[in-house]
């Protein structure tokens, strides 16, 4: 079995100062030419769930209303998974190239969460024109923009 080394390239800041990604100084040159992309994909580490119990959880008991009674973690966005990797697509508000700061409106990660990669959102690779989803989540929003004002508390069983 192969082992992998994942090194954080920055940190999520989600606090009273706002929401932004701080890219570590060593990785600031990697931001070159990111301007012009309205959205980016942030890959981050569910660091609060990086333990043996969380990594060994393979199924969840009906985390969503109307979902099957048991769901495999690969059919959820749960932090409990074999490798606690998360992905969030975000809007880019502003980039400070000198300080390595990307201001964003929102991310579903806690303050000081490690960021492991950033990729530009490109419709040719990231957008699916007519995605299919199970019936139990077919009434969920069709975009990140719609998700902002969706009543998610009515969906989750936790």
Automatic annotation (TrEMBL):
InterPro entries: TrmO-like_N, UPF0066_cons_site, YaeB-like, YaeB-like_sf, YaeB_N_sf. It comes from the Bacteria. Keywords: Methyltransferase, S-adenosyl-L-methionine, Transferase. Residues 6-130 form the TsaA-like domain. GO terms for biological process: methylation. Belongs to the tRNA methyltransferase O family. This is tRNA-Thr(GGU) m(6)t(6)A37 methyltransferase TsaA.
